[in-house]
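From the methods appendix. Each design record in this collection lists the tokenized structure first, followed by the designed amino acid sequence. Records were kept in a plain field format so they could be parsed without special tools. The example shown here is representative of the layout used throughout.

RECORD:
FOLD TOKENS (106 positions):
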């Protein structure tokens, strides 16, 4: 059984967040996505400080699909330089891990 990985990314609107999540789910690259709204991102871009409302997406996949999943995110993401960050949990509920693996491998 493959261990779970989480992938974090952001978008500027709900439609993009939903479409990215749905596409990855339909390709069985992820088992689940959580979309959070009303997130404020403060960052520097081209030597200016920006304050932007964004949507955060947390995607649940398996370690062996991280590269393929991040490649697909790059392909469909509207940002030129999207934040795509992989997080490897140190502990995962066994039943949840089985569910993720079963969905992705079906």
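DESIGN:
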């Amino acid at each position: 059984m493959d261990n779970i990985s989480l992938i974090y990314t952001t978008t500027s609107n709900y439609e993009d967040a939903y479409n990215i999540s749905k596409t990855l789910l339909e390709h069985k690259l992820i088992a689940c996505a959580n979309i959070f709204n009303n997130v404020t991102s403060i960052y520097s871009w081209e030597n200016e400080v920006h304050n932007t409302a964004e949507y955060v997406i947390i995607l649940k996949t398996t370690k062996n699909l991280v590269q393929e999943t991040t490649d697909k995110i790059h392909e469909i993401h509207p940002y030129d330089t999207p934040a795509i960050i992989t997080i490897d949990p140190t502990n995962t509920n066994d039943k949840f891990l089985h569910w993720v693996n079963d969905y992705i491998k079906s």
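APPENDIX NOTE: The domain at 4-105 is CATH 3.30.70.120 (Alpha-Beta Plaits).
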